[in-house]
Design a protein that fits this description.
Number of strands: 0
Structural class: mainly alpha
CATH architecture: Up-down Bundle
Largest sheet: none
Strand content: under 5%
Number of helices: 3
Order of helices and strands: HHH
Distance between the termini: 58 Å
CATH topology: Methane Monooxygenase Hydroxylase, Chain G, domain 1
CATH superfamily: Ribosomal protein S20
Shape: elongated
Oligomer: single chain
CATH class: Mainly Alpha
Amino acid sequence: MAHHQSAIKRIRQTEHRTEVNRARRSRIRTFIRKVEDAIQVGDKKKAQEAFRAAEPEIMRGVSKGVLKLNTAARKVSRLASRVKALS
């Protein structure tokens, strides 16, 4: 257990940041899942709409430090190619 006031505060801050990051990561996964579900069904229009909503959400994860840039770019690229392949 931490004994210094600064260490106790740091523990509190870390717990809060962890909670926020977990929520962000979950939100990103939800958006990705919506795209994948639309692709699975084969609904191109719905998949395109879901992809347009998911892309900025994924990139927002990069700016907030939840994802690395290359990871996000890879996810967006793979989703885009799967949506494009529906036609």
